[in-house]
Amino acid sequence: MTLDTAWARRWIAEAAATLVGERDRLNGLDRAIGDGDHGENLDRGFQAAADRVSGLADATTPAEVLKVVASALISTVGGAAGPLYGTAFARASRATAGEPEWSAETLATALTAAAEGVAERGKSTRGEKTMNDAWGPAADAASAASGAGESAEKALVAAADAARAGAEATEPLVATKGRASYLGDRSAGHRDPGAESTALLLAAAVTAVS
Ligand code: ADP
Ligand code: MG
Ligand code: MG
User: Fold this and answer.
1) Helix or strand or coil: residue 102?
2) Which atom of ligand 1 sits closest to the CA of residue 177?
3) How far apart, in Å, are the Cα atoms of 166 and each of 10, 141, 170?
4) What domains can you pick out in the chain, each with its CATH number?
5) If you measure from the C-alpha of residue 37 to the centroid of ligand 2, how many angstroms do you get, rounded to a whole number?
6) Ligand 1, from 19, 26, 29, 30: best to mutate by most atoms within 8 Å of Cβ?
7) CA pair distance 202, 199, nearest whole angstrom
8) CA distances from 70 to 43, 45, 46, 66, 87 (A)
9) Residues 6 or more apart whose Cβ sits within 8 Å of residue 114
10) What per-residue confidence (pLDDT) applies to 90?
11) Sign of CA dihedral 65, 68, 74, 78
12) Residues with Cβ within 6 A of ligand 1?
């Protein structure tokens, strides 16, 4: 099993399927500390992304698939998450251009580029109770796995596990970016919806490996 173009296609199909099922739960997380639309935003975005990816006849690299995903997300997801996820996928695409099969190192490069893109675009950093708290640890875990000589698949599992832990660890945090920051201290005690959706997306990437 390799992280190739077919994997990237399966990833996006799997992400779209996951988000149909998780839509209400993500809306609920966003209802607690935002405006309740995160599940519906991402569901719409990933259905559009999956449609465009299936219509993409001639992709020969994961980067080409991710580029189409980025443009679908930017054009169909309103609010904060559209441009942030669009930037994440666009940066991951650009950082891996021309690579038909990702090594652990390529994965680390992709996730680091995505994490940096989100932080730049959002003018935000880790610890602010945003999707940075999932992307950042995922990038670090992939880099550590790559440095330790692990396979691409093991690096991906490590990244998804780190994103999951990062999303859960947003619960006690007070939000200082995005809509949740309007609540101040009252944002504590709830999981950040964007960190949770990032964990779901990386879990879908793992499922797509097999
Ligand atoms: P909106 O808040 O515009 O309705 P969504 O509900 O789709 O957009 O997305 C909200 C998520 O976006 C938050 O849970 C958070 O993870 C993420 N987010 C919001 N602002 C920022 C930011 N400045 N930096 C990083 N992530 C952010
Ligand atoms: Mg919202
Ligand atoms: Mg909104």
Assistant:
1) strand
2) 23
3) 24, 11, 7
4) 3-209 (1.25.40.340)
5) 4
6) 30
7) 5
8) 14, 10, 10, 6, 7
9) 88, 89, 91, 92, 135, 139
10) 98
11) negative
12) 30, 34-35, 37-38, 41, 79-81, 84, 118, 122-124, 130-132, 177-179, 192-195
What's the gap in Å between 155 CA and the centre of ligand 1?
A: 26
Burial code (b: 16+ CB inside 10 Å, e: under 16) for 43-80 equals bbbbbbbbebbeebeebebbbbbbbbbbbbbbebbebb
Starting from the CA of residue 84, give the closest ligand.
1
Residues of the chain where predicted confidence (pLDDT) is lower than 50 = none
In sequence order, which residues have a C-beta less than 8 Å from that of residue 63 and are 6 or more positions away? 92, 93, 94, 96, 97, 98, 99
Task: Please tell me the distance from the alpha carbon of residue 51 to that of residue 54, in angstroms, as a whole number.
Answer: 5
Pairwise CA distance, residues 173 & 189, whole Å: 7
| Residue 123 CA, ligand 2 centroid: distance in Å | 18
User: How confident is the model at residue 78, as a pLDDT?
Assistant: 84
CA of 181 to the centre of ligand 1 (A): 10
**How far apart (Å, rounded) are the C-alpha atoms in residues 147 and 168?**
26
Q: What is residue 210's predicted lDDT score, i.e. its pLDDT?
A: 78
Give the residue carrying structure tokens 């609540």: 183
* Cα(42)–Cα(115) distance, integer angstroms: 18
Give, as one character, the DSSP assignment of residue 97: T
Scan for tokens 């101040």, then name that residue: 184
